[in-house]
Design brief:
alpha+beta; five-stranded antiparallel sheet; 140 residues
Length: 140
């Protein structure tokens, strides 16, 4: 699915309906209390986080590929409070994924009309042939 970038001041209603419904479905599909009126999403859209990922030259040189899953806690102001690797692949790829998440800002999750803290799991797939990571976050 193509994902255009959204401006930092975009509201939940500014997101296309298919993106809103997919984010809500992902929030309901994960274990725990991941139910939100509006799940967290990155300012600038999904592409904003992807632009921050740098495929490490050491991993590229060694032919390292894989899927890194980063779990981050997003506070009610939309800042990344914590970010860690749930599913590691290689230290350099893990670091690149965590750094990209930590450098990002998010629209906070909303429950009952108020911003709330939320955790998101963000998988990054590093592939040498495309030379760009792929990811899609889901609330947890």
């Amino acid at each position: 699915m193509a994902d255009p970038s959204y401006p930092a001041d975009a509201t939940w209603e500014d997101l296309p309906p298919h993106v809103r419904s997919d984010l809500q479905a992902r929030g309901r599909a994960v274990p725990g209390d991941g139910r939100f009126d509006e799940p967290p999403y990155p300012l600038g859209g999904m592409q904003a986080v992807m632009r921050r990922v740098v495929y490490p030259s050491s991993a590229r040189r060694d032919g390292v590929e894989g899927r890194v899953v980063v779990v981050a806690t997003i506070d009610p102001q939309g800042h990344v409070e914590t970010a860690g690797v749930l599913s590691p692949v290689h230290p350099d790829l893990d670091r690149a994924a965590v750094d990209a998440v930590r450098e990002s800002s998010f629209r906070p999750a909303v429950r009952d009309g108020r911003p709330v803290e939320a955790r998101v799991a963000i998988p990054f797939r590093f592939q040498l042939e495309s030379a760009s990571p792929w990811w899609w976050p889901f609330a947890c």
